[in-house]
Amino acid sequence: MQASHQPPPMPAEQPQRFSPRERIVNDFSIQVATVNGSGSQTANLVLMRSIFQMGVPVSGKNLFPSNIQGLPTWFTIRANRDGYIARKKEIDFLVAMNPESAQEDVMSLPPGAAVLYDEPLRLSSLRSDLHFYAAPFDKLVAPVCPEAKLRKLVRNMIYVGILAELLGIDPEQIRKALYKQFGERKKKAADLNWGAVQAGIDFARANLSKSDPYWIQPMDRTAGKLVIEGNTAAALGCMFAGMTVCTWYPITPSSSLAEALITFMERFRRDPETGKATFAIVQAEDELASIGMAVGAGWAGARAMTCTSGPGISLMSEFVGLAYFAEIPVVLIDVQRVGPSTGLPTRTMQGDTLKNAVLSHGDTRHPILFPSSPEECFTMAIDAFDLAEQFQTPVFVNMDLDLGMNLWMSDPLPYPEKPMSRGKVLTADDLERLGGFARYKDVDGDGVPYRTLPGTPHAKAAYFTRGTGHTENATYSEKPEDWVRNIDRIARKFETLRQHLPPPVQSLAPGARIGIVSAGTSRYAMEESRDQLSREAGLPASWMRLTAYPFPPELEAFIEQHERVYVIDQNRDAQLLGLMRLDLPALLLERLRSVRYYGGLPLDARTVTEQILAQEAQQA
């Protein structure tokens, strides 16, 4: 979505023409088009939260440019009574505040949509099949905000008030959401913005006659839920997991995860008696340094992590290979964005699936967790630290920008009930009883060796950590038999790990000939698409959501039960499907089909449905 920098000439004024329609209640999308840096985010979050507080399922997607200020930005809110929270492909109500993109935004709307716009833009002359509402925002904000330099920020609250009146949003819920957003310390600013909301409500009541069919009415579908970003939930999970070292380098869209982690750890992980930190969070000079420090901290016995995005992962490849071969636990949270190269830093993608599975040169395979919700960002962050230490290996948590940086409805995050698992760590007493140990020997047949931590007070505790060829006793070796024995044992460890991963989530439709497989945030488009296929085309579909790699045995069984299985990928090269092709028996591969989207926007259900129906038509 790009702004048109040379708008076409205005056509002559046309009367609006449209047929009367029944009310559409709690089932539409709102898109607010503004300028980046104009302060619209606060207004948009207040609007979204007020709908949520009315009990209506809601989601918010922020589409913003990668520069700091000046380019167009769009914020999309979807309200849906049935709980669908994937991005909706169609926009039903547009708030046009940006002269650069206004005409293009209006022309992209489907017939029957509504437009609230800044009066000087004269947008009502563009089309006759839309519902237009004009408002003089500058005139309305002037008496509310005497200080001219603040008006650019406060004027956004005018459209919140107008929408409240047009859509039936409870003003009291807007007031509660607004004061929650600003907090107690900024009451003066909240009062100023509340005045702008009231000015918008008063203007709409006195001057606008509602003609569109869209309404918000109270429901009870959000009771007990919260609204949270995935990055915030993941940061909480890291803290609850017992993380003690985080080394990171700023990069969109993962920076807010580290920043949230700093806030939480400063508040909850300082010694109550001395006030000293019981953790270390270090902003490194680059991604190479951050992964190097994290691997070193993991070797030293800390629960260590880094968080980054695709470009950072690319730089970390060699250190990840060292951690894999030297068998050092470390967690890498990858909040994916569009690549390759710098790509689109503020757009979402699942483009690191294949890379993370085999990152580094030589024979490597890494476990990956695929959270799809803030709740899973929390629980899988905890799982990642346990898995890393149990299996002495790097563990990836593959999030994406949509999940990490956008606000999501969520059930309350579950308090951890099981103790952390540090895996096979030998103490001084263990060594005394055993008389020593072989660092890289498979004692139990599961591929996982025993380790000691630096500083263990025993003469037999020390060993040489190396990334070169070694024997079971950690001595240097270039013998082929030693190399093969070691690399095969690590592969065996990977197979053992398969049994300890979160299970997939699946739903089998009676009589379904096709199945759909997804991972991560593709979940929401997949679930809604499944209902569209059944309702609109009479095509039942089963679905499975993968939660981890290596893939579970249930995946093979799922494929065997269906004639065709559509694998959803948010990347050009069908990476999830490609990883399945590497992992599955050859006889099953002919049943697999690809559904792909890689435009950088959050995946919508209609795109999935259309691609499946097009491929199904070829089977007829």
Question: What's this model, at a glance?
Answer:
The protein is of the alpha/beta class. Helix 14 (about 375-390) links the parallel strand 15 and strand 16.
Overall 3D form: globular
The largest sheet, given as strand count, sense and whether it forms a barrel, is: 8 strands, mixed
Instruction: Tell me the strand percentage band.
Output: 15-25%
> Spans with pLDDT under 50 lasting ≥5 residues?
1-20
Q: What is the oligomeric state here?
A: single chain
Number of helices: 22
What does this structure look like?
The chain is α/β, with parallel strands linked by helices and 620 residues long. Helix content is 38%, strand content 18%. Strands 10, 11, 12, 13, 14, 15, 16 and 21 form an 8-stranded mixed β-sheet that branches. It has a 6-stranded mixed β-sheet with strand order 3-4-2-5-6-7. The protein has a 5-stranded mixed β-sheet with strand order 18-20-19-22-23, sandwiched between helices. The longest helix is centred in the first third of the chain and has 21 residues, at 187-207. The relative contact order is 0.09. Mean pLDDT is 95; it is low at 1-20.
Topology of this protein?
Blueprint (H helix, E strand, L loop, with lengths): L23 E2 L1 E9 L4 H14 L4 E6 L8 E9 L12 E4 L5 H6 L6 E5 L12 E5 L1 H5 L9 H4 L1 H12 L3 H12 L4 H21 L6 E2 L10 E4 H11 L4 E4 L6 H14 L11 E4 L3 H13 L4 E5 L1 H6 L1 H10 L3 E9 L5 E5 L4 H5 L10 E2 L4 H18 L2 E7 H5 L1 E4 L17 H7 L45 H19 L6 E3 L6 E6 L2 H16 L3 E6 L1 E2 L3 H8 L3 E6 L5 H9 L2 H4 L2 E5 L8 H15 L1
Parallel strand pairs: 1-8, 2-5, 5-6, 6-7, 10-11, 10-12, 12-13, 13-16, 15-16, 19-20, 19-22, 22-23
Antiparallel strand pairs: 2-4, 3-4, 9-17, 13-14, 15-21, 18-20
